[in-house]
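Because showing beats explaining, we think one record worth quoting, sequence and backbone structure tokens together, and here it is:
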Amino acid sequence: MKFKAFLKRKNIEISFKRYFVDAMGAMAQGLFCTLLIGTILNTIGSQFHIGFLTATVATVNGVDYTIGGLASAMVGPAMAVAIGYALQAPPLVLFSLIPVGIATNALGGAGGPLAVLIVAIVAAELGKLVSRETKVDILVTPLVTILTGIGLAYLIAAPIGYAANWLGRLVMLATELQPLWMGILVSVIVGILLTLPVSSAAICAALSLTGLAGGAAVAGCCAQMVGFAVMSFRENRWGGLVSQGLGTSMLQMGNIVNNPRIWIPPIVASAITGPIATCVFRLEMNGAPVNAGMGTCGLCGPIGVWTGWLSPTNGAAPIVPTAFDWIGLALVCIVLPALICLGLGWLLRKIGWIKEGDLALK
């Protein structure tokens, strides 16, 4: 009982919500504000020849960085600090997670985000345990957080990164070999994860999900967001269209609990657009992996496909997109999900499976 009271006093809550919902959601925001924004800035700068975006603003250890390059380079500490913030870490713990994030992301390689998630959680919670417990807190708390975090990263970041990268490559290889069935599977699963209160973006980033599998993930996420946005237009009007279509379909989670049948049209749309993306248009997401799980949130999914065409981050060859590529992107990400969900939504309303108000945002 004393230990439980101590944990409560330290605001340490060992739960799925705290570690996998809150922490992963925050990690995705850290990814968004660094790697994703950096990639977008670099692509815009190079494609539209914008001088201040292509100019070197800093040189570190002989490496030249643009504004976007600096943003992308900060992905490790941004993820770690975001996770610490979600865990409500005190300031000294929060700031000490910066070197932990740098080290863990570097040691984790392609699977760095998953390694950062695990190591940052452990380091933050251990830092919280000792925070304000001594008269030399300004020394003890950073030392414990940094030493345990980097020490743990040295031991487990590389194996975690290797395992995550291996799993991601397995999914991508399976999608290449079986684009129809894996297109359906990846699209539906990642789309569902997007609407659930977990971070599909963080999962895609952790698995380094790109290529055809990334394209299927984009399709599934867009189907959920666009689908719910247009299907609920009669209840939520323009505000709901924007908040779900450019924000998140997670807003419908309460309504899904009350009536799971409202989830049928977006899931069916995911199952249809996923294989269309992989088999018909060969839509690949070769931009930052986090984009694969973003859907139309800020149009990050389509933007990720676009940046991947021009400046791939996964070793793929850049391409000059044709009209066919652009049509495929528009159909998969916006047009088809909207039409499918409008049609199925109307049918389910007709037969009484969806009633007036079932999709209204509270």
Remarks:
- The chain has a mean pLDDT of 91.
- The longest strand covers residues 58-60.
- The chain has two domains: 2-166, 178-350.
